[in-house]
């Protein structure tokens, strides 16, 4: 099954018109008027070419907008392809997400179709976004990542795709973002997969968790929060 066929089965790809409208609505209107200030830290760590997996913390529904603002087409000349839950692909929201290149994946038990499609996108030089925690975590629990990220990264490596994994931290001046507050996103140095297997996966999870935490702490400090 080729990439086009897999894309037909999972999503509609990125619609150029809807993509431009989404950038206008989110970056030029929503982010600009909702937040007093948006802060980007460590943007020099963002690779502008080559297969990339962005691994951000997940603290609010604004996270995806912040990621697209800091790493999307206007910055890197490529779209952020989001892996989302099946429930997020339902209804009117799903209709829009379908046209913005998002596609569903089960973080706990990802389907082979979703994994292969993801690897093919990366092989084509795309950048993918997967929230390793799986869901929004506002309670400041320690970062706990699901198996999907490392499984995808190792599968890409096994198929000869030299993907970089970029740890990302997001923070807001309020736990639940409020109008005229601050929002920050921090990129850490990318990680590369060099081994596969259970032990390598465990080591990778420890490293990515530590760097996501460090990125989030930097973002928190920039918006005036200690934790």
Helicity, as a percent range: 40-55%
Shape: globular
Counted beta strands: 8
Question: The CATH topology is what?
Answer: Glycerol-3-phosphate (1)-acyltransferase
Taking the sheet with the most strands, its summary is: 8 strands, mixed
Fourth-tier CATH superfamily name: Glycerol-3-phosphate (1)-acyltransferase
Note poorly predicted spans.
none
If you average the pLDDT, what whole number results?
Answer: 89
CATH architecture call: 3-Layer(aba) Sandwich
Based on secondary structure, the structural category is alpha/beta
- How many structural domains does the protein architecture include? 1
Instruction: Determine Rg (CA atoms, Å).
Output: 17 Å
Strand content: 15-25%
Number of DSSP helical runs: 8
CATH class, named Alpha Beta
**What sequence of helices (H) and strands (E) makes up the elements?**
HHEEHHEHEHEHEEEH
> What is the terminal-to-terminal distance?
47 Å
